[in-house]
Design a protein that fits this description.
This protein is of the alpha/beta class and 171 residues long. The protein is built from 2 helices and 8 strands; from the N terminus they run ββββββαβαβ. It has one domain: Aminopeptidase. The relative contact order is 0.17.
Length: 171
């Protein structure tokens, strides 16, 4: 496969717009096209702004009489791929060494198969994991064979960083 033909810039987009159910603040690490106008309009649930039905009040948990449509923000303009992550106080096995946890990662559907995710994860390790002196990375539940392949690549490329992950689904 050939590398991507568009110029990509690594960006720390700050806080993730997605909602996660844990106390740690979630950061977004992304690859953004240098020329966002050259990209096709975003598609998919994480890249284009969409709406979803809300059946319960988010704070009280009480049911609405009628479900409400709530806007779900998309990724920043020009975003080709993103990785949401946060710091953990302890790792999976109770150690207190610095740990980084990957919450979610996605690549635009029209950009898949161009090694963008491996470039993004490689940049994530060199710009976040190694400077933070993290001794372990928690990949969580890996549902995609492609991401499991990335997990194996990063494990062999960075043997000094312990990496944990759990394969889910059919591999």
């Amino acid at each position: 496969m050939a590398p991507p033909s568009i110029d990509l810039v690594v960006v720390d987009q700050g806080a993730s717009p997605l909602g996660y159910h844990h106390a740690a603040p979630v950061h977004r690490f992304a690859l953004v096209a240098a020329d966002a106008a050259s990209l096709a309009p975003p598609v998919g649930p994480y890249f284009a702004e969409t709406t979803q039905l809300e059946h319960r009040h988010p704070e009280t948990g009480r049911k609405h009489r009628k479900a409400k449509r709530v806007p779900v923000p998309g990724a920043a303009p020009g975003t080709v791929a993103f990785l949401d992550w946060h710091h953990l106080a302890t790792n999976r096995y109770g150690g207190d060494d610095p740990t980084v946890a990957i919450d979610y990662m996605a690549v635009r559907p029209d950009m898949r198969g161009k090694r963008i995710s491996s470039a993004m994860v490689g940049a994530f390790f060199t710009r976040v994991v190694l400077p933070a002196r993290a001794t372990s990375v928690e990949w969580g539940e890996v549902w995609s064979p492609e991401v499991w392949h990335l997990f194996g690549q990063m494990r062999s490329k960075y043997p000094e960083v312990r990496q944990y992950g759990k394969p889910m689904g059919r591999f």
